[in-house]
Amino acid sequence: MIDFGHFYQQIAIGPLSHWLETLPCQIEQWKKTTQHGQFNSWQKIVQNLPNITPTDLDLKTAVMAKNEYPLCPKEKQRITQLLKSLMPWRKGPFSLYDIDIDCEWRSDWKWQRILPYLSPLTDKLVLDVGCGNGYHMWRMVGEGAKMVIGIDPTQLFLCQFAAVRKLIGNNQQAYLLPLGIEQLPSLAAFDTVFSMGVLYHRRSPLDHLYQLKNQLVSGGELILESLVIDGDENQCLIPNDRYAQMRNVYFIPSAKMLKIWLEKCGFCDVYIVDQTVTTLEEQRKTAWMETESLANFLAPNNIHLTVEGYPAPLRATLVAKKR
């Protein structure tokens, strides 16, 4: 069973200790009331994976684990089948003992785009909001973070994270909790907070920005990545029903408007550091994610529009400081 006891011990002393006033009760409530129908099956898959401590672990340039002696073909096939039972894999890629998990998203491309603009993560306490299966969390550990905590309520992602964690030696610097940002108290404890691919799913985007701000120490850094549209500071798209087949997309501002939102919420030193169109090479179907992907969400004869006729996905990254 996926257990959070060790995490509680890790935060019992330090800036997150007061979180223990609420967190264990939240996790117990989650265990009782919100579990997905397949969660127990996913946990069994994780349990059936071997505990492996790699002789070569690279989290700096990739998420890659190797051993001096390769897995025998039968064991490699068994692990591959177990990992494929946790499909779809959306964020990646992972390379684990010559098993290459080719995920829907080339999340390493996004990481390379934002990395030059981050303050050093060495010895930092980091929060990754909407972390998915934790791919970027491992890259944050690779940059020297003291501890990375991810939150994401999707239970398949929790099991994928647990599977990778088990296969790379049960690293104690990264933890994923099955929570949403609205369930966190104002911790004011993190040096760096990431929110990537979350804002446009929030009914109240300014409330989301305040929630992120409340997790940061004074002077802490926010890295915000979101869908945006081209335009000036007065432009914002509010999709009527779906955007790129997604129902839960509420507000897609221009990057300049998003900068104003951050400043309105009390952030300072706000910079738009990147704007990149999502390509069919960055988000696509693979052998590890076989359902529809970006190619199915764009207009058949015009990749610059979604199937609904809206501008195709453009993503911006902004960096800001808490006063």
Segments where pLDDT lies below 50 for 5+ residues? none
CATH superfamily: Vaccinia Virus protein VP39
Mean pLDDT: 97
- The CATH class, by name, is Alpha Beta
Largest sheet: 7 strands, mixed
Q: Can you tell me the number of structural domains?
A: 1
CATH topology: Rossmann fold
Number of strands: 17
- How far the N terminus sits from the C terminus, by CA atoms, comes to 41 Å
Structural class: alpha/beta
- Output the number of helix runs: 10
Please sum up the structure shown.
It comes from Arsenophonus nasoniae. The chain is of the alpha/beta class and 323 residues long.
What does this structure look like?
The chain is of the alpha/beta class. It has one domain: 3-Layer(aba) Sandwich (Rossmann fold), CATH 3.40.50.150. It is 28% helix and 25% strand. A 7-stranded mixed β-sheet has the order 9-8-7-10-11-17-14, sandwiched between helices. It has a 4-stranded mixed β-sheet with strand order 1-2-4-5, covered by helices on one side. A two-stranded parallel sheet has the order 3-6. A hairpin with a 2-residue loop joins strand 4 and strand 5 (99-101). The longest helix is centred in the middle third of the chain and has 13 residues, at 155-167. The termini are far apart. The mean pLDDT is 97.
